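Here's a chain:
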Amino acid sequence: MTDGPGVTPIADGVYRLVVDGRSEIVYVAGPAADQWAFWNGQVFHRIVTEAAPRIERSRADVPQPLTSPMPATVLKVLAVTGASVRKGDTLVILEAMKMELPIRAATDGIVKQVSCREGELVQAGALLVELG
């Protein structure tokens, strides 16, 4: 592992990011103008318009849809409708490319809706859980 920052493609849509000597894996899905990235249990959505790119990140004051960052199988659903969750709680575990991907709450909130079930195949962008 190197000490300097860098991005190394590992596979199609999978990158190794090295910052301050730490290595992280980032998954990216979607076309160049509408990309989804999954890193450290968080989902980022990048939309590029002709004017400028816009990156959306979850906010606590609006309902938060937690979506699948890539095509995957739902391994485990830990979220329960009506339950209170804290930032960082794992709500769903997906499996993609033989790896487990935990989907975590980006903020404290209440589970408003669970839209997936164990064993289900989901596509990139599919709604998994909605927090309010």
Remarks:
- The two ends are 40 Å apart (CA to CA).
